[in-house]
Amino acid sequence: MDTLKLPQLTRRDVDRFWKKVKMLSNGCWEWQAATKKKRGEGHAIFSFKNVHYGANRIAYYLYYLVDPMELYVLHRCDNPPCVNPFHLFLGTAKDNTQDMLAKGRQGFWDCVGEKNPAAKVGVAEVRIIRQKAAAGQYQRSIAKEFGITQSAVHLIVARKIWKHVT
Fold first, then answer.
1. Which of 27, 34, 71, 116 is an S-S bond match for 90, by CB 3.0 to 4.6 Å?
2. C-alpha 23, offset from chain centre
3. 121/162 Cα distance (integer angstroms)
4. CB under 8 Å, gap of 24 or more: what pairs does 128-132 form?
5. Nearest alpha carbon to residue 68 among 7, 3, 10, 1
6. DSSP calls for 22-66
7. pLDDT digit string (tens) for 57-86?
8. pTM value?
9. pLDDT(45) > 70
10. Which string of b and e fits 2-12 if b means at least 16 CB within 10 Å?
């Protein structure tokens, strides 16, 4: 979606685009139509001739008359549905990642242990699981006791996950 060459828009298309924008008191021009749900974010989508474009890309193009092409259109305001051209800037994939990390938006994919919302057990349970396995208890019975899968127990015992727990 985001690397498509932008279309030639008619005046009618441009009017249709801006009718979907609401100016907020914080300076953001928030998109009021369709959004792409990605990790809980609502990136704005503008559809034109059955093709979806990032609305921030269209806004950037309409204001600066520059097609971002392979570049990303990033948000200074960190508000995904914002299409205010003054809040937008171009960057590479690396710039996008650095911007995400600087703003603390990396989600939970890099959260370790109990900080990861997908964690089924905690540090104390991991230690007990390893002790029980070392004492000879079957992984299947440990899994049943802790409400996790046998493969999760195996990964814990083999230190493939929860590596940081000693």
1. 71
2. 25
3. 10
4. 129/153, 129/156, 129/157, 130/156, 130/157
5. 3
6. EE-TTS-EEE-S-EEEETTEEEEEEEETTEEEEHHHHHHHHHH--
7. 999 999 999 889 889 999 999 888 999 999
8. 0.61
9. yes
10. eeeebeebeee
CATH assignment of 11-102?
3.90.75
- Per the DSSP assignment, residues forming a β-bridge with 47 are 52
- Say how far apart CA 88 and CA 8 lie, in whole Å: 21
Q: Which two tokens stand for residue 115?
A: 């900080």
Closest by CA to 155, choosing from 119, 117, 116, is 119
**What separation, in Å, do the N-terminal and C-terminal C-alpha atoms of the chain show?**
45
Which residue has tokens 């996790």?
148
Could you read off the pLDDT of 146-156 as tens digits, one per residue? 999 999 999 99
The Cα–Cα gap between 126 and 123 comes to 5
Q: Which amino acid is present at 23?
A: M
Tokens 């349970």 belong to: 125
**Tokens at 150, concatenated:** 């046998």
Q: DSSP string spanning 92-109? A: -HHHHHHHHHHTT--TTT
Per domain, the residue ranges of the chain are 11-102, 113-157
